[in-house]
């Protein structure tokens, strides 16, 4: 049985790189070998390691027999499909790429990606600001400082000028990193800087599967200089998967020391009396915008739960 690394998957056809040789195989999942993933929009994702058998008739084609155990997986809730979607597997860093402007800085999007990182065991988060050459407004600097204060990695780069890129490459050495960001923040430009020629390869694959110019509709793993990078589709909205409206507060790490002091163990930090989290917000110990971000996400998760369970 051969073993390999899933680089990407389109229409249930997966590009698998064989261990040892680096040979690429076009594989399908054999029968119901991944039926344990019922309800998942996609049972395999870039970064997954699998066992497969080569097709004895067609060269470089095969069937996936088994998915090896994952260290972790990065998921979102696919609002269109109404199902969890695995964007990447076996990652070390989840990188949320933003810009100070063009498109506007959106801290609530960052907060949701950070929630996903908290839900991904063994994964660290990096808030990465691109387009530093445009200037960094005071409100953006304040928010980045807040992320540093509560324990997240924060870096600023400019793909255009090259500032911060060598240090970023050094930071990523030996890791599998996943890039997440909204359209327009420079994710494709960063990918092409980290992996020269990546854009051309994505375009070729896109044309092969008749996907037109939408070259970032699917996650894709690339081998960079000493590390692996998984590019994910640019999205407008992001809903993390793996928590509930009642538990998502534990994913806001600065809430934890205060949540333990709430009068009620199941406190939702909303209308309950003697809520230590709300008191911390009022006293300026918890950032009010982060608290508002929590309330918005909690409300959206509650609506999704009502749709699912009635």
Short summary:
The chain starts with a strand and ends with a helix. Residues 209-215 have low confidence and may be disordered.
Model description:
This protein folds into 3 domains: 2-67, OB fold (Dihydrolipoamide Acetyltransferase, E2P) (Beta Barrel), CATH 2.40.50.140; 73-231, P-loop containing nucleotide triphosphate hydrolases (Rossmann fold, 3-Layer(aba) Sandwich); 248-309, Orthogonal Bundle (Ribonucleotide Reductase Protein R1, domain 1), CATH 1.10.40.50. The termini are far apart. The radius of gyration is 21 Å and the shape is globular. Helix content is 27%, strand content 25%. It is built from 8 helices and 13 strands. The model is unreliable at 209-215 (pLDDT under 50). The protein has a 6-stranded mixed beta sheet with strand order 10-9-8-11-13-12, with helices on both faces. By secondary structure, it is an alpha/beta fold. Helix 2 links the parallel strand 9 (124-129) and strand 10 (153-156).
Provide the helix percentage: 25-40%
- Radius of gyration, Cα only, in angstroms? 21 Å
What CATH calls the topology of the largest domain is Rossmann fold
Known CATH architecture of the largest domain: 3-Layer(aba) Sandwich
Helix segment tally: 8
How many β-strands, per DSSP? 13
Distance N terminus to C terminus?
A: 46 Å
Query: Ranges with pLDDT <50 over ≥5 residues?
Result: 209-215
CATH superfamily of the largest domain: P-loop containing nucleotide triphosphate hydrolases
Name of the top-level CATH class of the largest domain: Alpha Beta
Mean pLDDT: 91
The biggest beta sheet is recorded as: 6 strands, mixed
Strand proportion, as a percent range, falls in 15-25%
Tell me the overall shape: globular
